[in-house]
Amino acid sequence: PQPTTTYRPRRPLPSNVTLAPIAPSTLTSFRRLNSVILPVPYSERFYAEILSDPVVASLSAVALWADTPASKPRVVAGIRCRLLAPVADAAPSLYVATIATLSPFRGHGIASALLHRVIAHAAREYGVTTVSAHVWEGNVEVWEWYSVLGFTKAVFEEEYYKKLRPGGAWVLERPVRVTD
């Protein structure tokens, strides 16, 4: 059974958190974040596109956390998305390729803020009307997080993740909403 989706108003980010585009100075930290949190590796091309492809760059961001106003902020979360080509006469869709938050920084609304930022930009600049992501079948925590944000299970893909056991993944989808 799918969890019931309830409306939760977005809360403001902590004042010491800044959302920013991924830059050459934060790319290495974003890559490290993904390698620590996510169970599959991503290619050098995956990361290089963030700096070389203006569309991918506009759909990618990091969250920077500063312990004090004088301290150097560090990357604690990040998102990288891309556009999926439209089918027939439909609008393009936003695809969440990766989204991750270091565990000590979860529960502050950082990942939700990153996702909202990218969805709003993609809707405004590229006319996207839907958002989708693959979620490994064994990751109940992530599925529940997406569910609270209004995503539903659309399609199950057997053996999507070749190096994970089990290897299936759910494609989760939701429409872009006015509140985005």
Automatic annotation (TrEMBL):
Keyword Acyltransferase in record: yes
Keywords: Acyltransferase, Transferase
MF (Gene Ontology): acyltransferase activity, transferring groups other than amino-acyl groups
Biological process according to GO: mitotic sister chromatid cohesion
All residue ranges annotated as the N-acetyltransferase domain in the record: 17-177
One of the record's GO cellular component terms: NatA complex
Pfam families in the cross-refs: Acetyltransf_1 (PF00583)
PANTHER family: N-ALPHA-ACETYLTRANSFERASE, N-ALPHA-ACETYLTRANSFERASE 50
Protein name in UniProt: N-acetyltransferase domain-containing protein
